[in-house]
Amino acid sequence: MFESLSDRLSGVFDRLTKQGALSEDDVKTALREVRIALLEADVSLPVARDLIKAVQEKASGQSVTKSVTPGQQVVKIVHDELVHVLQGDGDPGALKIDNPPAPILMVGLQGSGKTTTTAKLAKRLKDREGKKVLMASLDVNRPAAMEQLQILGAQIGVDTLPIVKGEDPVQIAKRAKTAAAMGGYDVYILDTAGRLHIDAELIAQAAAVRDVAQPRETLLVVDGLTGQDAVNVATEFDDKIGVTGVVLTRMDGDGRGGAALSMRAVTGKPIRFVGLGEKLDAIEEFHAERVAGRILG
Ligand code: GDP
Q: Does 69 carry a binding-site annotation?
């Protein structure tokens, strides 16, 4: 995660910290390089610009250049600003899944990793929080998607709603709700159908399911490798359906990391989890401090 951005930044900061005394111009030059590194990592332009501006304001004046370790001071300021960009107004806290059975709605484009993430999340809730979880696939367009979820459920020891042919997504959601209540489940996760692009039908279907299920959390799964596109997809889903959080998948790849950095600032929605591989335990909670630390190496 963030290897190339992290390499670039550590190059800049190594030079800065080794330099000893720093002039305002040295700091400016370094921040110009940081800005380029952020843009190359596909961070959106306004986000990169605001971040650099905030760092510049905090680093200017006497305190940094006159301090004993000016380079480290700059790094600390960049770190704090990264945390700020990554978590916005604050940590979103735990998922709102009290009051069983709590519905979680999973939305996203086809191929984003939605079904895999549904299983990863279910496994995590079961293993770490001892929750009794039910998963249901609402993907009536692709019968293979329903079977995929069933197979994943068997692998992780989580129940899936029995498949009934001929139902529409709203009917499946209603059946999942009843089954979750009758079966004493703590949480039920609805895996909606994805499409290659956001279109009217996808939105109408997700909205109809949302209205029936009244989800406590609506998690959007987006491919972290797609950079600014991931952020655009999130903005559109949030406008049309309303999401409470984002899961960024494929963060194990050599993606440039821009999606992670722009997501909160552009959409206002917290990143809840990151997917770090195909295995069903390859998911991590998103912590701004930890991620900022990784970016700075
Ligand atoms: P869906 O169409 O959105 O439901 O996507 P799937 O869950 O079927 O995932 C599509 C492919 O992406 C599968 O081969 C998954 O194993 C893979 N995948 C999902 N999440 C991750 C991730 O975090 N990292 C990697 N490397 N692969 C992932």
A: no
Average pLDDT over residues 202-211: 94
State how far the alpha carbon of 143 is from the alpha carbons of 167, 201, 206, 226, 236, in Å: 12, 18, 18, 27, 27
Whole-angstrom distance, CA of residue 14 vs CA of residue 244: 38
Tell me the ipTM for this assembly. Answer: 0.99
Average pLDDT, the chain: 93
Minimum CA distance residue for ligand 1 atom 13 = 113
Under 8 Å between Cβ of 248 and 271: yes
Q: Which two tokens stand for residue 36?
A: 């380029």
pLDDT for res 71: 87
Q: Is 258 annotated as a binding residue?
A: no
Strand, coil or helix: what is 150?
A: helix
254 touches ligand 1 (CB under 6 Å):
no
Using an 8 Å Cβ cutoff, are 149 and 191 in contact?
A: yes
Whole-model pTM: value is 0.94
* Residue type at position 227: G
Does any ligand 1 atom lie closer than 6 A to the CB of residue 112? yes
Contact 2, 290 (CB under 8 A): no
* CA separation for the pair 295, 276 (Å, rounded): 16
Q: What is the pLDDT of residues 65-87, one digit of tens each?
A: 778 788 888 999 999 999 999 99
